[in-house]
């Protein structure tokens, strides 16, 4: 499989997925259907994760086709800039959705949706619009039959949106502007790591049987801190990728790290969306978790340590994927 | 000024050379990996205890968090050992950089604060939660700042060194 192939496989998910998730969200509110609202938030979180490899694979896809006849660098630049803007808005939507899911679990029914609904609605509509533009500008690269006019000249709404889209090369230069800025990004990445592993670690170690004197339910209160740690690391990780796109793209450790993060997402789904969470939530001090819950907790911890391991080895696996 | 010669003798030793130059994934990067594991355990567990002492996630009962100190000390032990190996791999790089001494000093203070929290906040089983929190509040604030400082100083080592190996 090449990056061009991987990019084509992944790139429909954020676009179509965001439309479906927004549809579920709206239907859930109009029909006052709690299940649909929840499903839409879960879908947004999953899409926010899936958008990461979609974006990352774009750099490799670009490298694969850049010398082919009829391929315009300007069109690819426009697509990449549009993708960067849509990516950040999608990640914000995913973060809001995750925070929303956490709140549903903890707040009484009548107070659940105040305030956050408008924010999520605005960001999900923005996501759908921007993702549509990413698809459109991406399609233009290979499909001259759908292009409006010549080159990258734009009018109306697309010209307006284009003003907010970064120029990929300049964004990259900005990340490399000073080694102290880079050091700062990396520093935050390690601080986020400590926050994430500490909070997630306590919950999972408790389920595995260490720290058994702790009741399980209150540990769920640590999850916003875990989300904050993960949020810091997604942001700083994205900035690092944008700073050195080629370095990460052609690196096997980087891709396995992304795969491990997606598996963490899958594992979280097993934990929160099956009966594992409702079962363990009732465990008081000294009570033992069921075997399957321990298995999920062990897998989560293993995957997070795999993420750290693969991240650490990125430096020594530089250039392990051929450009062609 | 030329760095002291003993740094060169350490670098010439078999262990130092192997750690630095081996192509094996179990050489330098493996040690660095364990240094990161140790960081996650040590700082991660400290963060949870500090946040709770400062009154966040108040629904978690405070006394059972004492069990986290075992994890902190395990993380500290892993990092003392992996740190020593990293120092053996690049002694000139570390010991000619003032930031390295700053990092050690910050860690010294942070571990001292950690021990104080363990003894004064969690060591007295007669204390109720509010007196534990009152006793630990200042220590917990210091702890968070010092661990952020330790991570920052550690990260800076990659950007501030004067010599990578003995000149």
Description:
- Chain A has 324 residues and is mainly alpha-helical.
- Helix content of chain A is 74%, strand content 0%.
- Chain A folds into two domains: 166 residues, Four Helix Bundle (Hemerythrin (Met), subunit A) (Up-down Bundle), CATH 1.20.120; 158 residues, no CATH class.
- Chain A is globular and about 70 Å long.
- The termini of chain A are close together.
- The mean pLDDT of chain A is 93.
- With 167 residues, chain B is mostly helical.
- Chain B has one domain.
- Chain B contains seven helices and no strands.
- Chain B starts with 5 loop residues before the first helix and ends in a 7-residue tail after the last helix.
- The mean pLDDT of chain B is 96.
- Classes of the chains: A mainly alpha (324), B mainly alpha (167).
- Chains A and B meet through helix 8 and helix 13 of A and helix 3 and helix 7 of B.
What's the layout of helices and strands?
The complex is a heterodimer of chains A (324) and B (167).
Chain A: H1 3-10, H2 12-30, H3 34-65, H4 73-106, H5 116-142, H6 156-162, H7 168-175, H8 179-208, H9 223-243, H10 245-249, H11 252-273, H12 276-281, H13 291-312
Helix pairs in contact in A: 1-3, 2-3, 2-5, 3-4, 3-11, 4-5, 4-9, 7-9, 8-9, 8-13, 11-13
Chain B: H1 6-12, H2 14-21, H3 28-53, H4 68-89, H5 91-95, H6 98-121, H7 129-160
Helix pairs in contact in B: 2-4, 3-4, 3-7, 6-7
**Uncertain spans of chain B, ≥5 residues at pLDDT below 50?**
none
What is the averaged pLDDT score of chain A? 93
Mean of residue pLDDT values of chain B: 96
Strand portion of chain A, in percent?
under 5%
Question: Looking at the structure, what is the overall shape of chain A?
Answer: globular
What count of helical segments of chain A does DSSP give?
13
Number of helices of chain B: 7
Query: Strand-and-helix sequence of chain A, N→C?
Result: HHHHHHHHHHHHH
CATH C-level category of the largest domain in chain A: Mainly Alpha
Radius of gyration of chain B: 19 Å
Which structural class matches the secondary elements of chain A?
mainly alpha
Number of domains of chain A: 2
Strand content of chain B: under 5%
Please give the largest β-sheet of chain B. none
H/E topology pattern of chain B: HHHHHHH
CATH topology of the largest domain in chain A: Four Helix Bundle (Hemerythrin (Met), subunit A)
Cα-atom Rg of chain A, whole angstroms?
Answer: 21 Å
């Amino acid at each position: 499989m090449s990056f061009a192939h991987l990019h084509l496989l992944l790139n429909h998910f954020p676009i179509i997925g965001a439309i479906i998730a927004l549809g579920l969200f709206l239907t859930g509110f109009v029909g006052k259907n709690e299940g649909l609202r929840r499903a839409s938030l879960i879908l947004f979180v999953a899409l926010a994760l899936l958008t990461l490899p979609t974006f990352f694979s774009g750099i490799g896809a670009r490298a694969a086709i850049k010398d082919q006849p009829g391929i315009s660098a300007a069109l690819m630049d426009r697509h990449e800039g549009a993708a960067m803007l849509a990516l950040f808005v999608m990640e914000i939507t995913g973060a809001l959705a995750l925070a929303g899911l956490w709140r549903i679990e903890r707040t009484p029914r009548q107070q659940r949706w105040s305030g956050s609904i408008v924010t999520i609605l605005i960001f999900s509509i923005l996501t759908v619009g921007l993702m549509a533009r990413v698809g459109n500008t991406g399609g233009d690269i290979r499909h001259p039959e759908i292009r409006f006019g010549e080159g990258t000249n734009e009018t109306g709404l697309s010209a307006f949106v284009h003003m907010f889209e970064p120029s990929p090369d300049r964004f990259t230069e900005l990340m490399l502007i000073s080694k102290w800025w880079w050091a700062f990004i990396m520093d935050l990445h390690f601080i986020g790591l400590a926050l994430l592993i500490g909070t997630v670690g306590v919950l999972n170690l408790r389920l595995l049987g260490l720290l058994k004197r702790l009741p399980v339910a209150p540990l769920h209160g640590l999850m916003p801190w875990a989300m904050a740690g993960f949020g810091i690391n997604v942001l700083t990780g994205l900035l690092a990728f944008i700073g050195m796109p080629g370095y990460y793209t052609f690196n096997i450790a980087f891709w396995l790290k992304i795969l491990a993060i997606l598996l963490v997402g899958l594992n979280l789904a097993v934990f929160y969306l099956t009966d594992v969470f409702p079962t363990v939530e009732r465990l008081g001090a000294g009570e033992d978790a069921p075997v399957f819950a321990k298995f999920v907790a062990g897998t989560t911890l293993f995957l997070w340590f795999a993420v750290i391991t693969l991240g650490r080895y990125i430096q020594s696996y530089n250039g392990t994927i051929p450009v062609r | 000024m030329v760095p002291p010669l003993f740094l060169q003798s350490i670098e010439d030793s078999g262990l130092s050379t192997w750690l630095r130059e081996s192509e094996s994934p179990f050489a330098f990067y493996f040690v660095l990996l364990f240094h990161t594991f140790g960081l996650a355990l040590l700082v991660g567990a400290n963060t949870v205890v500090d946040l709770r002492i400062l009154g966040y996630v108040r629904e978690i009962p405070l006394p059972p968090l004492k069990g986290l100190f075992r994890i902190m000390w395990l993380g500290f032990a892993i990092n003392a050992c992996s740190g020593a190996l990293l120092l053996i791999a690049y002694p000139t790089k570390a010991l000619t950089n003032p930031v390295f001494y700053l990092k050690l000093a910050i860690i010294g203070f942070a571990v001292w604060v950690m021990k104080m929290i363990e003894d004064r906040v969690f060591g007295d089983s007669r204390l109720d939660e509010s007196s534990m929190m009152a006793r630990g509040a200042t220590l917990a604030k210091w702890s968070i700042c010092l661990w952020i400082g330790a991570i920052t100083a550690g990260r800076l080592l990659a950007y501030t060194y004067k010599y990578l190996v003995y000149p």
